[in-house]
């Protein structure tokens, strides 16, 4: 089989990093253009991130990884970088994602406690956690991301484009809702903080037992956002007792006011779930990736629960009017 130019460039990077004698095996790709390869030899292993430019940029990953390590967290150590070509040589943290460990019967309470402790560490770090230069995931940026619901889900559910005036009404509803957001100090958001991007590292102690992946899109924002990602996972039902325990653990360790935090949690949950509902339909209709659709009923249940909070009343009225229950069935068995 002919070797592509990309494969030749990756092999050259591996040689320059001192791993030219290692065996290479494809580990995974993801929803982006990135691919990951494990390099193995008798004295150890490493992982290559292949992130081809211009679609991908490895610099944010490197910067955030080093920042997380400085905060005492378990991001992969970056051993070698080729920014121009889009290659990184990373510490190999293994294959034990939370998803795999949980599927094999791992202790759910322990895993979710450690993952919650990572978020506590970020919040307690205060200004030290706020990596300069990162954008703010707040205000209109939150609304822009949530626009995937009227742009993709609503037309798929109704069979017709969303009227311009209803798209504007949706944005206005979000503006009214976010006006109810109590002020809390921003923290570092890893953005996709869930079972597939967390690794169990039982040989490490305390908060370092939770390995971190896929944080290149980190921004600054509301401290509830990543906790929503963790305990209201689009791909997994988190039992109510675990949900409540993580919430109590976070509030108990950070000392944040419960009422204010729970209002923020409901708003961040509604925003994330609205975005994901639209995203999963876009993945099907634009990108030919229908595998996410079976998760939509779960995300709708979580979205509806968030809409029950009084701070979300303007958005709830829009959803009830434009997307009554019979139109919430995409992806349902």
Structural class assignment:
alpha+beta
Model regions low in confidence, pLDDT < 50 over at least 5 residues: none
Q: State the end-to-end CA separation.
A: 42 Å
What's the pLDDT, averaged over the residues?
A: 95
Q: What is the number of E strands?
A: 10
Shape: globular
Helix content: 40-55%
Structural notes for this entry:
It is a single chain. It contains twelve helices and ten strands. The protein is an alpha+beta fold and 333 residues long. It has a five-stranded antiparallel sheet, sandwiched between helices. The protein has a three-stranded mixed sheet with strand order 6-10-7. Strand 4 (78-82) and strand 5 form a beta hairpin. Helix 4 runs antiparallel to helix 8, helix 8 crosses helix 10 (258-285) and helix 10 packs antiparallel against helix 11. The longest helix has 28 residues, at 258-285. It is globular, with a radius of gyration of 21 Å. The mean pLDDT is 95.
Question: How would you summarize what this structure contains?
Answer:
The chain contains twelve helices and ten strands. It has 333 residues and is an alpha+beta fold.
What is the secondary structure topology, with strand pairs?
Blueprint: H1 5-16, E1 23-29, E2 35-41, E3 44-50, H2 59-70, E4 78-82, E5 87-91, H3 98-103, H4 108-124, E6 136-137, H5 140-146, H6 148-158, H7 164-178, E7 187-189, E8 198-200, E9 210-212, E10 219-221, H8 225-231, H9 240-254, H10 258-285, H11 296-307, H12 313-322
Parallel strand pairs: 6-10
Antiparallel strand pairs: 1-2, 2-3, 3-5, 4-5, 7-10, 8-9
Helix pairs in contact: 4-8, 4-9, 5-10, 6-10, 7-12, 8-10, 10-11
């Amino acid at each position: 089989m002919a070797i592509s130019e990309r494969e030749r460039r990756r092999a050259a990077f591996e040689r320059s990093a001192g791993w030219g004698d290692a065996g290479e095996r494809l580990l995974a790709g993801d929803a982006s253009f990135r691919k990951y390869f494990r390099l193995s030899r008798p004295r150890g292993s490493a992982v290559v991130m292949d992130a081809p430019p211009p679609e991908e940029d490895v610099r944010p990953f490197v910067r955030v990884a080093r920042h997380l390590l400085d905060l005492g967290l378990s991001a992969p150590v970056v051993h070698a970088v080729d920014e121009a070509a889009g290659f990184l040589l990373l510490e190999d943290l293994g294959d034990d994602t939370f998803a795999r460990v949980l599927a094999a019967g791992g202790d759910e309470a322990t895993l979710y406690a450690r993952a919650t402790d990572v978020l506590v560490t970020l919040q307690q770090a205060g200004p030290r956690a706020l990596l300069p230069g990162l954008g703010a995931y707040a205000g209109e940026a939150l609304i822009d991301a949530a626009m995937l619901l009227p742009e993709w889900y609503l037309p798929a559910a109704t069979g017709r484009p969303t009227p311009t005036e209803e798209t504007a009404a949706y944005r206005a509803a979000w503006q009214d809702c976010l006006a109810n957001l109590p002020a809390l100090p921003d923290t570092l958001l890893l953005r996709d903080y869930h079972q597939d991007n967390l690794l169990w590292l039982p040989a490490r102690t305390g908060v370092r037992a939770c390995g971190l992946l896929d944080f290149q899109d980190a921004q600054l924002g509301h401290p509830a956002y990543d906790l929503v990602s963790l305990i209201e996972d689009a791909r997994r039902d988190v039992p109510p007792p675990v949900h409540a325990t993580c919430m109590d653990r976070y509030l108990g360790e950070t000392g944040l006011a419960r009422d204010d935090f729970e209002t923020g949690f409901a708003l961040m949950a509604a925003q994330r779930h609205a975005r994901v509902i639209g995203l999963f339909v876009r993945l099907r209709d634009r990108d030919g990736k229908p595998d996410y659709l079976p998760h939509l009923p779960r995300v709708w249940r979580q979205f509806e629960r968030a809409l029950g909070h009084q701070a979300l009343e303007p958005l709830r009225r829009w959803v009830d009017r434009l997307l009554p229950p019979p139109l919430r069935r995409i992806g349902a068995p």
